[in-house]
Specification:
Blueprint lengths: L7 E7 L14 H14 L3 E5 L12 H17 L4 E4 L3 H9 L4 E4 L9 H8 L2 E5 L17 H18 L7 E4 L8 H9 L1 H4 L7 E2 L5 H6 L14 H14 L3 E4 L2 H28 L1
Parallel strand pairs: 1-2, 1-8, 2-3, 3-4, 4-5, 5-6, 7-8
Helix pairs in contact: 1-2, 2-3, 3-4, 9-10
């Protein structure tokens, strides 16, 4: 087994004062870059740098502020040979980040928030994560109504893929993300996890992001029904990542890279043993 066979780990770096799980801890360039280096050393294959919170109810920040937060961090990491993605819905921010070394744009709006995004990506060739959501962060739960969440998420992602392809983005650039927690209640998130293999049938690399999200906190609630705090959800996050890898996910986006890297090593060793056993059985037959 080679490293290229392994699912990717994308480590999260929020250069914001108000992110849900770690807002304010890495708000300046030096702290954010140091944290990113630590995540990379712990096993992250990609560092995802974001300068605008997408937590439920979050207000938008000015594009200039977002760009000033992320571009220096992206440039510093890319100069060290670290693979970097930029978490943004704005084409101008994506362009500046890609010009400074980012190779992936992680767009939670799947290219819907900025009409310039598809043309930018068609021109510069950066990869794009198309994440499923409905509405903006401020009102997304008003749109969390599904008859069949997996089928509807798949259909809506397919529509966004078509939109991007018509703008000139290539198949090879596209990664999809079911958007756990975005316009989805806990029951929707769990069903997406249980049926994640169905979304791999879209035949695009699938990025999975459950890290520290509210539905995990509810599942881990104490006897009084109080959800587990966000920073105490990393073991549960690693468990969902293993389920995602088993379902065929291309990668996972997480805050605690070390736990996920350990989980991936266990998953890979088990997969190797399973394949060896199956090969012995085939040889006997």
């Amino acid at each position: 087994m080679t490293d290229i066979d392994l699912p990717r780990i994308m480590g999260v770096v929020n250069v914001t004062p108000d992110s849900l799980s770690d807002g304010g801890r890495y708000h300046d360039v030096a702290a954010a870059a140091a944290h990113a280096r630590a995540l990379h050393a712990a096993g992250a294959d990609i560092i995802d740098v974001g300068g605008e919170s997408t937590r439920p109810g979050a207000a938008r920040v000015d594009a200039d502020i977002e760009q000033s937060r992320v571009v220096p961090v992206v440039a510093a990491l890319a100069a060290e040979g670290i693979t970097v993605s930029v978490d943004t819905t704005r084409a101008a921010v994506a362009e500046a980040a890609c010009d400074n070394g980012a190779t992936i744009v992680n767009d939670v709006s799947a290219g819907q928030a900025d009409p310039q995004m598809p043309r930018l990506l068609a021109r510069n060739g950066c990869r794009i994560v198309l994440m499923h959501r409905r509405g903006e962060s401020s009102d997304m739960y008003r749109h969390a109504h599904y008859e069949d969440v997996v089928a509807e998420v798949g259909a809506e992602l397919s529509a966004q893929v078509t939109y991007m392809r018509e703008a000139g983005v290539t198949n090879e650039q596209i990664i999809v993300d079911p958007g756990l927690g975005f316009a989805k209640h806990a029951e929707h998130n769990w069903e997406l996890i249980a049926r994640l293999h169905e979304l791999t049938e879209l035949r695009y690399p699938l990025l999975f992001g459950a890290s520290r999200k509210g539905f995990l906190g509810k599942a881990l609630a104490d006897a009084d029904g109080e959800p587990r705090p966000a920073t105490e959800r990393d073991i549960a996050t690693a468990a969902t990542s293993m389920l995602a890898f088993d379902a065929g996910a291309w990668g996972v986006r997480v805050h605690d890279v070390a736990a996920t890297a350990d989980m991936r090593a266990v998953w890979a060793a088990t997969r190797h043993a399973r394949r060896a056993y199956e090969a012995r059985g085939a040889a006997v037959l």
